[in-house]
């Protein structure tokens, strides 16, 4: 990945009537303008509670987030549950269930082999016998006090929580689901003779739930996100709910450039199709034109948005000079270019316990990105995100709550 996007990537050529919104009572409060950038609870309040739990989502809401983010994977019987990956060994107590010991297996996900327990080998009833665990116990030891306390929630339970808290607080709490690994889930049909799976089964099921809960409207308090492209293109023909193209990379090199290494080099459906375009290519002029044809926003990893300079200053105060100490030196231009094309920009992930590039103070880092002009950011520490927004000079977002960046063609 590159803080300063490479000229080759920027110059690479990319090949390349709104539907009627369903009336829905939940839209009553969505005609107003979005008056400030969004704070999105990344996997809930993952800095304080095990990720993707109702307790974590509840805490994020109590801390003031606008949206909660459930990553979604499918169970064996085709139910959507909130987990970051199909692999559940690191975020549940499945290893402590002898009745499931025989289900640990090897499987390919986005070109990488994992030996683990996979959600797609468990029915929802079986998943409900498991309990969540902290994914990063070394980094967040305090969260291990909650290991074993919380069930794995379904999408329906997340929606119900958001609506309940909207009523209780008097403010709209949105949901920001991510479709995880569409290609992996679609391929399960052929690989395992799973009749419930197959091409676009996941997307169709998600839309059915969201349309029933919120209606088919750009004013719904919902964004759907994905690192793949084909699933978003499919969704763009089926819904007016806003869509977000996520932009990934592997790491930041010592010189500040971005490392593009598989499986973080390009959307996995591009890999399967032999399409050479990388995530960085999607942020070029022609790349953003392509994204605009099916999405309303981009979700770039935060280093894509800022330039950095190595000046020898120990900004993190840890006694050594590394890439985290690079001085942030303004925008790369990606943010402004996206806005010029009518795309919102929601960046990720901001954490108190993981050094931001060029910042020693996490609130200062988040405020910088708000001041830069992002329309929203994802954080594991929602209280810090809300405080950063409050301290930011950027009182207004570029976009209205209901604005779409694309034109739906039915």
Can you give a write-up of this model?
It contains 12 helices and 17 strands. With 410 residues, the protein is α/β, with parallel strands linked by helices. It has one domain: Alpha-Beta Barrel (TIM Barrel), CATH 3.20.20. It is globular. The two termini are 36 Å apart. The relative contact order is 0.17.
Layout of secondary structure:
Blueprint: H1 7-11, E1 38-41, H2 54-62, E2 67-68, E3 71-74, E4 80-82, E5 105-109, E6 112-116, H3 124-127, H4 155-169, E7 174-175, E8 178-179, H5 182-192, H6 201-214, E9 223-226, H7 230-236, E10 242-247, E11 251-252, E12 258-259, H8 268-273, H9 285-292, E13 297-300, E14 306-309, E15 327-331, H10 334-340, E16 344-350, H11 362-372, E17 376-379, H12 382-391
Parallel strand pairs: 1-2, 1-17, 2-7, 3-8, 9-10, 10-13, 13-16, 16-17
Antiparallel strand pairs: 3-4, 5-6, 11-12, 14-15
Helix pairs in contact: 2-4, 11-12
